[in-house]
Write a structure and sequence with these properties.
9 helices, alpha/beta, two-stranded antiparallel sheet, single chain, globular
C-alpha cells in the first residue's frame, strides 16, 4: 500500500449525500436512544447528516462492541441498538465519531499492551491526570481498528477519528515515546485504521485536527504533520470560525489533493454550499 492507501485510491468518490451537500449536526455524546427524535433535531437545525459519538475521550463506548478491550467500557441503553440500526438504515448520511488515543479506561486496563508509559515504566498521566494509548502498540491498533470495522459493518457512512495525537499537557519529558518516532507512529496508526476499512471501500475515513496544525502545518509536541496526515484521509475536521475557512481549505488542498476540509462551527455558515459540522443546534 502506498502513502495514500490502496483502499482510498480505488473506492467510489460518490456517496450519500453528495460531498458538497453534507451539513452535519453533532449529537450529544451519549448513547443514542431514539432515532426519530435525533432525525427531527437534525432537520430542525437544517442538517441532512448526523455525527454520533461511538466512543468518547473518557474511554466509554456507546454501542454493543464485541471488542475484548471494550469490556467494562460499554455504556448503552435498552433502545440503543435499535436506534442505531434505524439511523444507519435511513437516508441520512451518518458519521461515527470515535475518540482514539485519549482513553483512561483502556490505558489503565492494559498498560503493557496499549497504554502510553512514562520513562519509569508506569502509565503516563498528563496535565489533566488522564491517560493515553500508545499509537505504536499493536494492542492499541487492534482495539481501535476493531471498533472502526464494527462501525463500518453497522452501516455508518464515515468514521471520524478524534484525539489522534500524543499528549500536549503535563510533564511531557517523562513520556516514553515510541522508538519509531511520534510522527511515524501517528502515520502508521492512521494507515492501520485505513486498512481496517479494506472491506468497506465506500466508508470515508476522517480525522479531527486542531486548527493550529492546519495553519502552521504541524505540531511537534503532538506528533502531527499535516502533509503526512492529509493524504491518508478523506476529510479533515477542525473547530474554527467561518472567516477562517478559505485559508484552511487552501492549506489542506495544498497537501491533500482529494482531501476535504470540514469546519466545525457553532452556527450555520452564510455560504449555503459550504459543508460543515454544527456543534450547537440553532
Amino acid at each position: 500500500m502506498d502513502k495514500t492507501g490502496q483502499r482510498r485510491t480505488n473506492r467510489d468518490k460518490v456517496f450519500r449525500p453528495e460531498r458538497t451537500e453534507t451539513k452535519t449536526l453533532q449529537l450529544d455524546a451519549a448513547p443514542l436512544t431514539d432515532w426519530d427524535s435525533a432525525a427531527a433535531q437534525a432537520a430542525a437545525a437544517g442538517c441532512n447528516s448526523v455525527a454520533v459519538t461511538v466512543k468518547d475521550a473518557s474511554g466509554q463506548v456507546y454501542f454493543d462492541s464485541a471488542q475484548p478491550a471494550a469490556s467494562g467500557a460499554i455504556r448503552t441503553e435498552s433502545t440503543t441498538a435499535a436506534a442505531l440500526t434505524a439511523m444507519t438504515a435511513s437516508d441520512t448520511y451518518t458519521i461515527a465519531r470515535l475518540s482514539c488515543l485519549l482513553d483512561p479506561i483502556a490505558a489503565k486496563a492494559d498498560v503493557e499492551g496499549m497504554g502510553l508509559k512514562n520513562t519509569g515504566g508506569y502509565i503516563f498521566y498528563d496535565g489533566n491526570n488522564l491517560n493515553w494509548l500508545d499509537p505504536s502498540k499493536s494492542g492499541t491498533q487492534e482495539y481501535l481498528s476493531g471498533l472502526v470495522k464494527e462501525c463500518a459493518s453497522m452501516g455508518f457512512d464515515e468514521i471520524l477519528l478524534t484525539d489522534v495525537s500524543f499528549p500536549t499537557e503535563g510533564k511531557l519529558n517523562k513520556i516514553a515515546y515510541p522508538g519509531a518516532g511520534m510522527q511515524e507512529s501517528i502515520r502508521a496508526f492512521l494507515m492501520a485504521m485505513d486498512t481496517a476499512l479494506a472491506a468497506y471501500p465506500d466508508v470515508k475515513l476522517s480525522v479531527e485536527l486542531p486548527e493550529s496544525v492546519i495553519t502552521l502545518g504541524q505540531d511537534e509536541t503532538a506528533g502531527l504533520v499535516l502533509s503526512e496526515i492529509a493524504p491518508l484521509v478523506d476529510r479533515i475536521y477542525t473547530e474554527t470560525t467561518e472567516g477562517s475557512i478559505p485559508a484552511l481549505e487552501a492549506a489542506v488542498e495544498a497537501v491533500g489533493e482529494d482531501t476535504v476540509l470540514i469546519p466545525e462551527l457553532t452556527a450555520i455558515p452564510a455560504e449555503s454550499d459550504q459543508p460543515y459540522l454544527l456543534t450547537e443546534p440553532s
